[in-house]
């Protein structure tokens, strides 16, 4: 059996930023492997494409540049927001929110949520980066295909992996 659409694939891998010697960003090992429904449109298309055709036991190693992953950092997604929009709670709770590097969720007028990272702030403005957390990063994957199986009827309907104890979802933030 090979990695192809409508199969459930189990992988172990190490994800590094930039290349084989880069910073480790994620490890999915045999004790908690990465499982996905191939063809679900929930993963990066280039990630699935690199795995298609592999068999159980095959090793893989590939690089996804930003244009095939989460894109380059878009300066227009870095915004300065009036600090007054954050002043709804008491000052001590605000100090816990306004921390450089914190990830926050903000909603627009229509109620749509946006994830952002606080870059800096002062008495007037809060600078927030709304780019994907992995934007601008070159993703280096190295791993092994642990298992491949046909999806169950329930998985075909849901287009995601269903474990014995329920659905095991995965969201890489792909738009």
Automatic annotation (TrEMBL):
Signal peptide from the UniProt entry: none
Recorded catalytic activity of this chain's protein: [protein]-peptidylproline (omega=180) = [protein]-peptidylproline (omega=0)
CC per GO annotation: cytoplasm
A GO MF label: peptidyl-prolyl cis-trans isomerase activity
E.C. numbers: 5.2.1.8
Location in or out of the cell: Cytoplasm
Major enzyme class: isomerase
Keyword check for Endoplasmic reticulum: no
Superkingdom as given in the UniProt entry: Bacteria
UniProt record, GO biological process: protein refolding
Cited InterPro entries: PPIase_dom_sf, PPIase_FKBP_dom, SlpA/SlyD-like_ins_sf
Domain PPIase FKBP-type: 6-82
Keywords from the named record: Chaperone, Cytoplasm, Isomerase, Rotamase
UniProt keyword Zinc, yes or no: no
Record-stated family: Belongs to the FKBP-type PPIase family.
Function of the molecule: Also involved in hydrogenase metallocenter assembly, probably by participating in the nickel insertion step. This function in hydrogenase biosynthesis requires chaperone activity and the presence of the metal-binding domain, but not PPIase activity.
Protein name according to UniProt: Peptidyl-prolyl cis-trans isomerase
Species annotation: Haliscomenobacter hydrossis (strain ATCC 27775 / DSM 1100 / LMG 10767 / O)
Taxonomic lineage: Bacteria, Pseudomonadati, Bacteroidota, Saprospiria, Saprospirales
């Amino acid at each position: 059996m090979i990695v192809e659409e409508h199969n459930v694939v189990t992988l172990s891998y190490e994800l590094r930023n930039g290349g084989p010697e880069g910073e480790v960003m994620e490890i999915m090992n045999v004790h908690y492997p990465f499982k996905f429904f191939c063809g679900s449109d929930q993963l990066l298309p280039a990630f699935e494409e690199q795995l298609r055709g592999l068999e159980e036991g095959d090793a893989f190693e590939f690089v996804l540049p930003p244009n095939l992953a989460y894109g380059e950092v878009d300066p227009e997604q870095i915004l300065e927001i009036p600090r007054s929009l954050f002043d709804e709670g008491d000052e001590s709770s605000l100090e816990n929110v306004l921390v450089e590097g914190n990830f926050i969720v903000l909603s627009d007028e229509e109620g749509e949520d946006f994830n952002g990272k606080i870059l800096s702030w002062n008495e007037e403005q809060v600078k927030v980066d709304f780019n994907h957390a992995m934007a601008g990063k070159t993703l280096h994957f190295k791993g092994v295909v642990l298992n491949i199986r046909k999806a169950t009827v329930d998985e075909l309907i849901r287009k995601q992996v269903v474990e014995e104890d329920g659905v095991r979802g995965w969201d890489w933030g792909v738009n």
